[in-house]
Amino acid sequence: MKKLILSAGFALASFFGLMNIANAEGLTLDGPPKIAMLYISPTNDGGWTQAFDEARQRLEKDLDIKIQYVESVPESASAIRPAVERFIKRGANIIIGTAFGYSDTFKSLSEDYPDVAFLNGSGTTNGPNLLSYYGRTYESQYLCGMAAGAASESGKLGFVAANPFGVVNWTINAYAMGAREMNPDATVTVVYTGAWNDPTKERSATKALIDQGADVIGQHVDTPTPQLVAQENGVYGTGHHRDFREFAPEATVCSSVWVWDRFLKNELEKIIAGNWVPAPHGALLSMQEGGTDIACCGPNIDEEEEAKIMAAREKLMNGELQIYAGPLTDQNGTVRAAAGEVVSDGDLWQMDWFVDGVITQQ
Amino acid sequence: MDLITSWMGNIPEFAVPFALAALGLIITEKSGVLALGAEGLMLVGAVIGVGAALTFDNTAVALAIAMIAASIVSLLFALMVLVMRINQVISGLVLVFFCQGLTTLTGTLMGWTNQPVSGLGSIALWPLSELPYVGRFFIQNIVVYLVPLVFVFSVWALNRTTHGLRLRAVGENPQAADAAGISVLGYRLAAIVIGAALIGLAGAFIAVLSNKLWISNMTAGRGWIAVALVIFARWSPWKALAGALLFGCIEALIPQLAASGIKLPQYFVFMAPYAITLGVMVWVAVSKRDISSQPGALGAPFIREERT
């Protein structure tokens, strides 16, 4: 019995001891900061990685620091680990990843190198020296939905999406809510392609939507194909990742864009200042905190509509507007948030329900 | 617009690359060389096609250059399997990985990624294009209409010419062909190069004509489906064309169903093309009607007995 109490005491002591270390002492870098980034695809992919590379260039200027990078690191441990370890051997002490599939390898690397700060975009793992971050894309896509609702004549919007899970579904619902802000009768018909990067499927999805009467095409896939097809067919669209007016200037009325530098600048400054304690459940960034913004507005949006969109953007920027605030009911009548409440982050990640106006497969 | 009309119009976009790649594979495999590298060669055709279209602003030239480029890369495969007699399965896999890296690198260094090209306009095949429902199937670019002609010519060349006979002989029994004075390696080399040109055209079709841009790894596994189609078709070009059409029909139908608001279980729909391919392959294997249509010497390197 004595032994048991003693060991329990030890366990408690060591538990609190660990907690103390974790709480009181954040990570302080050993030497001067040396930052390295790992990209999942080439820097000129036109979307996700290019947005990171543009953020990197702005960060280099803002922080007056050189940031190394390596392109096209696939989502497998055998590719990630050597790349990261090579950077660490050369003295890097801040490693920034850019992919969901880096999560597990970054977790084990962060345990092997406790003196190095790890950040991972769209990752899912966190730790005392590892922070995953992602943007609340539904905020910027809500604004794009407003632009789409304003640009549409028929009120029938199409949406080309990758896979039916939380982060995609939340943009779809927000898109529909934004569209209905401008046109209460607007509907959003969704085609999932089952792939992030398959232009052939995106093209046929977009054509099918246009054939069915959609005159604005939103997207949550990686290539600019839906915007190109919209332009070919003389309809409008909204982009994702970057300002797709670059590819389809006559079609793209609004784009949800990544502005990672706004978040990373703050976070990197915190790391460099020392005693860095990453958020225990990762950073899910609102527009206020950086992450996403919009590039608006393209053709077929008049000044009054643009002012309305920009006013909503302002409200998101200062935290006045919450997209998933109650009272919120899905299409089946289930209450998802009561009045005065907001859908929790956990529920957002698992979103498998749709609001009125969304037409989708199950 | 009507679901069926829209659906019909999108079928060739999916079916043509499968058909061309499968035909290229059949020509190569009839000579006894197991070709798994279609995915890689399609990527080569795609990136070089877009690059040439951006450089020369001429789609016909771009397609020709894409075919030549795929043929040139296939010489590497020929070197491995014909001269060095490396295992053909491994050589094919290596070729795919090599091409994935090579094409991504090329597209990145040359700045060809995401650059739109002009492609080809559609030609309406009157009076077929006026038919109800299926009309839009006959409003396509010229290359789509050439596909059946390429098939007719290839089948004629394989079955009705001396060169075709020799090519098949080399694939069935290289020792006998060699004894008859036929150059086994020469015919195999020709089969690899010609097959690669068609596979390269399939890739260029996806990039230059259908999507009108290059994106890294954009063939998205269609080369592998072509490999499966060849087995499915038991090395018969016409069956491969039918298979490509079947597959194209299913792939083109999927977005149509969603766009017209028909509710189906999403993941079941994603799975459907592959489930049907699997089903047909099992059916072909079980029915065993023409199992012997596989070239006799497929996959076996030719080693001439040493002479004294």
What does this structure look like?
The complex is a heterodimer of chains A (362) and B (308). Chain A is 41% helix and 19% strand. Chain A has 362 residues and is of the alpha/beta class. Chain A folds into 2 domains: 35-135, Response regulator (Rossmann fold, 3-Layer(aba) Sandwich), CATH 3.40.50.2300; 137-259 and 291-359, Response regulator (Rossmann fold, 3-Layer(aba) Sandwich). Chain A is globular, with a radius of gyration of 22 Å. By secondary structure, chain B is mainly alpha-helical. Chain B has one domain (3-227). Helices cover 70% and strands 1% of the residues of chain B. Chain B has helices at 3-30, 38-56, 59-83, 88-110, 142-160, 162-172, 174-179, 184-211, 222-232, 237-259, 266-287, and strands spanning 123-124, 139-140. In chain B, strands 1-2 form a two-stranded antiparallel ribbon. The chains are: A alpha/beta (362), B mainly alpha (308). The interface between A and B is large, with 41 and 43 residues.
> Strand-and-helix sequence of chain B, N→C?
HHHHEEHHHHHHH
Main sheet summary of chain B: 2 strands, antiparallel
Low-confidence stretches of chain A: 12-23
Count of individual beta strands of chain B: 2
How many structural domains of chain B? 1
Helix percent of chain B reads: 55-70%
**Helix count from the secondary structure assignment of chain A:** 11
C-alpha end-to-end distance of chain B: 74 Å
Task: List how many beta strands of chain A DSSP finds.
Answer: 15
What is the CA-atom radius of gyration of chain B, in angstroms?
Answer: 20 Å
